[in-house]
UniProtKB/TrEMBL annotation:
MF (Gene Ontology): nucleic acid binding
Any GO BP: regulation of DNA-templated transcription
Keyword annotations: Mitochondrion, Transcription, Transcription regulation, Transit peptide
Organism field: Collichthys lucidus (Big head croaker)
GO cellular component, one term: mitochondrion
Family: Belongs to the mTERF family.
Domain of life from the UniProt record: Eukaryota
Gene3D superfamilies registered for this protein in UniProt: Transcription termination factor 3, mitochondrial
Keyword Secreted among record annotations: no
Protein name: Transcription termination factor 3, mitochondrial
Amino acid sequence: MICYSDFTAKHLATEAKEDKDIEELSRADDVAYKSPLMPIRDAVPVTERQISLDLDPATEFSALEEISDEEAVRIFVPSAMPPASLSLRDYVDQSETLSKLVQLGVNLWKLEQRPNVGSMLLRLNFNTDVAPRLLFLKEIGVDDSHFGNIITRNPFILTESLENLQARVNYLKSKKFSSETVASMVSRAPYLLNFSVKRLDNRLGFFQQQLNLSASNMRNIMARLPRLLCGSLEPIKENLKVCEIEFGFKENEIQHIVLTVPKVLAANKRKLTQIFDLLHNTMEVPHHLIVKFPQVLNSKYLRIRERHLFLEYLGKAQYDPNLPNYISLDRLVSLPDEAFCTELALATLEDFHLFQKTL
């Protein structure tokens, strides 16, 4: 069982401050919000201002020469950046940071939908703020091609201190995640490095205790679905209770299901309940067969239903391995339509399509 050790405490010493609630930041992805992006004058160094006078080109003025009010009004001084805008696109030509982020594949349109993110990006200096963190990602093994996606999904990694980022990577390695695994986890779950060492330790401990997993099995699940460490724990707790109380699975059965298909933990509760009800109550598949083929719990409900109804119409819906003409759940959900028709239903694809139209 993972515990909060002295080694973990040593990494905590490098934390500058407790991280903001990343779960709230994750939910901000879905907020359709736009606010004017106010220019940050320090974002673009202006070495020279061009003053345009709508006067006679032959007329020259001394810096100390007095001019009339009429001539003063006609003087135009262009600003370095737009005074305000609803889109980051208007700042790309003037901002080195935005321009290079676009080159990396960052989706500015997605970022500008999120509160205050646009203004934050305009404040960043590419050489001192962005480049060091990109170099850090490269040094821990993240491929360059993933930079754009990581920043698009988690722009706040650009404001994390390098000491904190390194401490979190060191912690994961201390829990025997390989360097390659850590790089893969960061690429697929960009918010991972925004969690403090303490929070990472608590979350790993939660999964190990709730599922009664060995350290090796816990690492296996997190390596395959690292976003489990970043999202809310409430849906996961609820799914575990549903599997145990409503579905009636035993602890060792739930453990086997999760080890085989980790996505079950993060599945939509309504979808999970729909599929189980179809399998167990309609198709009369016993618990032990569902545990044997847990991939069905991660399949599409309509695919299972349509195929079962077609087999039932043909008199071939037989899922008991002890009886003739047995059809395994694995093949039922994994085969493409054509193979399903020819190998399991013994019918044509056209027959299946015609049957689907009657549903």
